[in-house]
Amino acid sequence: MSKLKAFIFDVDGTLADTEKDGHRVAFNRAFEEANLGWCWSVDEYGELLSITGGKERIHHFLSLRHPKFLKQQQQAGTLDDLIKTLHARKTHFYAQLLSEGAIPLRTGVKRLLNEMREQGFRLAIATTTTPENVTGLLASTLGKASIGWFEVIAAGDIVPEKKPAADIYHYVLEKMNLKPEDCIAFEDSSNGIQSSLGANLKTVITQNHYTETHDFTGAVLVLDHLGEPDNPCRCIAGDLGGATFVSVTELTKLVTA
Ligand code: XBP
Ligand code: MG
Fold first, then answer.
1. Which of 67, 128, 234, 253 is deepest in the core (most CB within 10 A)?
2. Is the pTM of this model over 0.90?
């Protein structure tokens, strides 16, 4: 029988609502600084989120909205450098937002992480975002020491293919020498669950503004958030056994069920 040993967390959209008021704003600041005249609205950014990874997202945007500019840059051999430079500035502006405390953790995240740690569970992160975005978020919300709570922080370009590919979860499982049946993954998006299910991980979804219409077939639980004793979560799919917030007790039942 499998025994629950570890929890693996996505970051963007799962630990915190980073996209609309974080990454999107940082991209726009980088575009403005470079005088490019591009500005991603909340809705347009939602569409662009179908592509994970900031550098990949800029490339996708150019192919959709500025194909001529893209071609010129490709022919001049300057495209990769342009995207790299813009992305580095975007990471700088994102770090600034984090340090100002602009991005809080989602409901229930801090409580649940503390409970998992108190009960001796192993923790890891599997994300598409740049490594310093993860450490910056953890430091600004839970304090610098929280970076050490996670045995593995797998992020960004560390694997050949980003989500929806399963590479990042395979990487974490291998590093921690764990079997998928001994873990639960936490995700928020269709790309995220494709990645975690691709690695055979039981997956709990907490939806957000950008992902509430996504297809979460295969998730063991779909919730609006993790909940708190005084702020009940809504169970959209799966069975939380009558509980109004996610706790280790409920998660253990999901694995042994
Ligand atoms: C997150 C992402 C990230 C961020 C930006 O996807 O797609 O690209 O939007 O991060 P997931 P970078 O939550 O599925 O991991 O700009 O650092 O790439
Ligand atoms: Mg996510």
1. 128
2. yes
